[in-house]
Specification:
Helices cover 47% and strands 14% of the residues. It is of the alpha/beta class and 568 residues long. Strands 9-10-11-12-13-14-15-16 form an eight-stranded parallel β-barrel. Strands 1-5-4-3-2-6-7 form a seven-stranded mixed sheet.
């Protein structure tokens, strides 16, 4: 079986299968609507009590950040609009509470599932989780509890809801397999947090797995092997032991510089979305934060965050990083990231529309509020500010002009801020990469966002499964653009980083070192392995290999060259 490798590592063991019971909802006309409303309110009250207990347990066992999902569940249960619609349906259509709840929740689930943003699509799972809980409390349906796990097991489920993972005994779970889900689903995030190997999105084939079966899962490759032969068990046991030895070896790289065999030092930073993510950066010895995605401050709420709320978040990250560089990307909303409280125009191509810096320049007060908070926080650490999706020099200059105006306002108000803030820009559209020689004269650094740069370069929607094979990070055009950006940045004496997915790709790291990339920013969990890889490289030799790759005509040719230099 093939799925998505959501959390790295090998797990070998017996399964505990959790199937969600089908709750049959019979359609019937009701006579007493008030009685149905009372049933709804009782079920909501009971559901809230259960979730509050789960929230406390999750906070104690997993952490406050992971427990926040249950705060969102309570917000769903308190949503007056959603439950107003349920009441209206009960009274107007004369249907049962169960039927009204199911119909209204399906509308909301469909709304989220059809969003372009992967993160927001997977938030539909939260509504499903809450709906199932309320339905169980309405019908009295039984469900398999993960609190009943005995021994060390690999959990197999259609999908693991936040409620499931909060209640299970984490010390007994050695692996996770789910039919549904993606890398940003709750079960994936939780598995990575707890360092449990996981394969998600494995499809209907997992229906062949029964409790007590033996399975092997490879969380790196996304593979599941059901009832393997002894030879395979021995092979993967050896691989698992090798992984554990590598883990121990990687810990020896904590506290060391990231430096090649021929003495070239680079910086390994981390991508984060919330202040709580700093824990993972420090645990994995990140040398800085190369991308702080500030849009998460704006999401899962009903209004814009205030200047004070943003200031507290930025200050927290800067202080905890203790003087290490923190690159904050200004608001990157639009395209696949939508705010329910911000009315944006309907667009044929939102990825090419009013988003990121374009949105901020069209909504200067929103932009200025964020810049004020950033400047105020700058005295607490080593802040660098980065503008996203710059495609013209005019945009960059206007953004810098607004920043300068905010500086002057703070100065006039007697509010302190740092005078040593580097200003940079994302290179994520081909126009910026092509004009990087000009842009390099305007900023202190570049950060290459390869996820969007690849998407725009090869004209492939990275979320479209039908053409996913064309979204290839080994495409020669992308690699040529990257080399061009690095060279142009260095000509003007600025440093060049990368915060896209390929910054942590073991196959491409040697090439990027050969090209002269100064800073690699990635998921915190990838930092020590990347440091280990770079410590075994000789940059001088890789410069020739990088040139060889630039001369390739196809992604296949690129991979052939990579195979000759890949560090295992």
């Amino acid at each position: 079986m093939i799925g998505i490798g959501a959390s790295p590592g090998i797990a070998i063991g017996t399964t505990f299968v959790k199937r969600n019971p089908d709750i049959e909802i019979k359609k019937k006309k009701i006579i007493h609507a008030d009685e149905e409303i009372i049933r709804l309110k009782d079920a909501l009250l009971k559901s809230k009590e259960e979730i509050r207990l789960i929230l406390k347990k999750a906070a104690d066992e997993i952490g406050n950040e992971e427990a926040k999902v249950f705060e969102a569940h309570l917000m769903i249960l308190d949503d007056p609009e959603m439950y107003g619609q349920i009441e209206n349906k009960i009274r107007g259509a004369k249907v049962s509470t169960e039927e009204a709840l199911e119909e209204v929740s399906k509308t909301y689930i469909g709304l989220f599932e059809n969003m372009d943003n992967l993160y927001m699509r997977e938030r539909a799972a939260d509504i499903k989780d809450v709906t199932k809980r309320v339905l169980r409390n309405l019908t009295g349906a039984d469900t398999v509890s993960l609190a009943d796990i005995k021994g060390q097991v690999i959990i197999v489920a259609d999908e693991l809801t936040p409620s499931d993972t909060a209640q299970m005994d984490k010390t007994r779970v050695i692996g996770i397999i789910t039919e549904l889900g993606g890398k940003t689903s709750h079960s994936s995030i939780m598995a990575r947090t707890l360092e449990i190997p996981a394969v998600v999105g494995a499809g209907k084939e997992i229906e062949h797995i029964k409790s007590g079966d033996t399975v092997i899962i490879d969380g790196d490759k996304g593979t599941v092997i059901l009832n393997p032969e002894e030879a395979l068990i021995k092979k993967y046991t050896a691989k698992k032991e090798a992984c554990q030895q590598l883990k121990k070896k990687l810990k020896s790289f904590i506290g060391k510089d990231t430096i090649t065999k021929d003495g070239i030092k680079v910086e390994l930073a981390a991508n984060i979305g919330t202040p709580e993510d700093v824990d993972g950066v420090l645990k994995n010895d990140g040398e800085g934060i190369g991308l702080y995605r500030t849009e998460f401050l704006y999401m899962d709420r009903d209004t814009f965050p205030t200047e004070e709320e943003q200031f507290i978040a930025y200050k927290s990250v800067l202080e905890r990083m203790g003087g290490k560089p923190v690159v904050v990307r200004t608001l990157d909303i639009g395209g696949d990231k939508i705010l329910p409280y911000l009315a944006l125009p309907e667009e044929m191509n939102p990825f090419l529309g009013l988003r990121a810096i374009r949105l901020c320049l069209n909504n200067k007060e929103i932009f200025k509020t964020q810049l004020r908070a950033l400047l105020r926080a700058s005295i607490y650490g080593n802040l660098k500010i980065m503008f996203p999706m710059i495609s013209s020099v005019e945009e960059l200059r206007e953004a810098k002009k607004i920043l300068e105006k905010v500086r002057q306002e703070l100065k006039n108000e007697g509010i302190r801020y740092s005078f040593k803030i580097e200003i940079g820009m994302m290179i994520e559209v081909p126009a910026a990469a092509i004009l990087s020689e000009i842009f390099a004269k305007e900023v202190d650094f570049f950060s290459i966002g390869t996820n969007d740069l690849l998407q725009y370069t090869v004209a492939v929607d990275r979320g479209n499964k039908e053409i996913a094979n064309l979204y290839n990070p080994f495409h020669p055009a992308l690699l040529r653009l990257i080399k061009n950006v690095i060279e142009n940045g260095h000509k003007e004496g600025i440093w060049v980083g990368m915060c896209g997915e390929i910054a942590g790709d073991p196959r491409l790291i040697p090439v990027l070192v050969g090209m002269g990339l100064d800073e690699f920013s990635m998921s915190p969990i990838s930092i020590l392995n990347t440091r280990f890889i770079i410590s075994n490289l000789i940059k001088k030799e890789l410069e020739k290999k990088s040139q060889e790759i630039i001369n390739c005509s196809t992604a296949e040719e690129v991979c052939e060259v990579l195979d000759s230099i890949c560090v295992k």
